Amino acid sequence: MSELDMQHVLVVDDEPGILQEVSLLLSASDVPRVVTLSDSREVLPFLAEKSVSIVMLDWVMPHVTGRDLLERITSDYPHIPVVVMTAMGDVETAVGCMKMGAFDFLTKPVDPNRLVSSVRKALQVSELGNQNRILKDYLLDDRLRSPEAFEGIVTRNKKMRGIFQYIEAIASSRQPVLITGETGVGKELLANAVHRVSGVSGPFISLNAAGLDDFMFSDTLFGHKKGAFTGADSKRDGLITAAAGGTLFLDEIGDLSLASQIKLLRVLQEKEYYRMGSDLLLKSEARIIAASNMDFSALRKEGKFRHDLYFRLCAHEFHVPPLRERLEDLPLLIEYFADRISRQLGKPVPSVSPDVVSSLEHYPFSGNVRELYNMVHHAVTCCETGILGSSDFPGLKPVQARTPVVVRDGNPLFDVFGKFPTIVQVEDYLIEEAMRLAHGNQTMAAEMLGVARPTLNRKLKEK
User: What separation in angstroms does the CA of 194 have from each of 3, 172, 401?
Assistant: First the structure.
């Protein structure tokens, strides 16, 4: 369960009837974990012990007044939005509440739609503030809380590291996520990382929307009832049902028809949908993550993508850099892919010539990491020498590797080894130190060393 899901909505009023009415209304509107208090003296102790997302507060109460509580809450818990409810509907009271820091002011008897709308807006503000605090902590700390969620994404690039931190910050939210980036950069891997970090119990379900007409999209996403159309011999659940309590990943979302976009918009806005041919309204309990390699600004200008759908999708958004902007990852990726592919083929893991990396640094990579994987797969399959060279990569122009100049005077390596060490000695030393600092955690040690975890595991076994 996410941190946000564990927070309470606290309603405070000295009239039990109002507490019951508000609690039932919010619960019926899918507002979770509503807690009521009729004694205003219990509010501050409750806030000190429990995690609270918003407070709904009566203004006139015995013991501790709403005014006194508002002053304390805005001072001691400035991140918690406070919605004030009162029968005193005069302008002076309303202005005074807002000046003291109230999020909203509702006059009794409160219109149910107005109350629910106010609470939902306050929850959104609370959620955004919570994510901003988490993201700020990550940026200052620079540590990943869930490194295992990113094990399949090999990188030491700063932009990618920033994306990992952003994912950890937004993972507890159930708001939609939009991932943009060129073909082959790993958008689905990152979507899966969002799912894994969130800790939800439901599955990760993926759908590529490219080439789906409105009928196919609707049937695949929403399902159909028996007899909905010719050939519908039985009821079928859609992917939204399959992804309940988990994540639904919609790839190539920019290809959706306008008719399909309207249906997806309803799911995002109302969290409701109908099976094809059915008038039974169903609830959507899946988080939506969408991805595309298209330019949404251009699509919206051309009228090919709805503005309202775009803004619903990008509650959280990040762009994945192309491989040409993270060339420092090339050696890691080549090594990682060569290791994995060799094991799949039952072949010895080949070493990689420095010329290969230098040559690939000048390659355009229109297909990004996916294209690199295919190139390495071909090279490993055809390699018979145990060393991957430029000749194993068809179409690759050989570029001689740069030879670094070694400055020996004052080199700190002499302080550690007593002489200029061999590569094997340095490698052994770095592995031992990384494992010591990581307290034996191979994932953390591999990240420190800038190598893939399977590579570190193999080297440890070889020692």
Answer: 15, 9, 38
- Dihedral sign for Cα atoms in the order 350, 351, 354, 357: positive
CATH 1.10.10.60 residue ranges for the chain: 409-463
**Which distant-in-sequence residues (6+ apart) come within 8 Å of 108 by Cβ?**
18, 85, 86, 87, 89
Tokens matching residue 54: 């918003």
Q: Which CATH number fits domain 409-463: 3.40.630.30, 3.40.640.10, 1.25.40.10, 1.10.10.60?
A: 1.10.10.60
pLDDT digit string, tens, across residues 306-350: 999 999 998 899 999 999 999 999 999 999 999 999 999 999 999
CB-based contact 256:217 (threshold 8 Å)? yes
| Four-point Cα dihedral 115, 118, 121, 126, nearest 10 | -100
205: β partners? 248
Instruction: Provide the whole-model pTM.
Output: 0.66
- C-alpha separations of 44 from 9, 80, 379, 409 in Å: 14, 13, 66, 65
Q: Which two tokens stand for residue 408?
A: 């020996």
CATH, range 144-321 = 3.40.50.300
Tell me which fold the domain 4-135 belongs to: Rossmann fold (3.40.50)
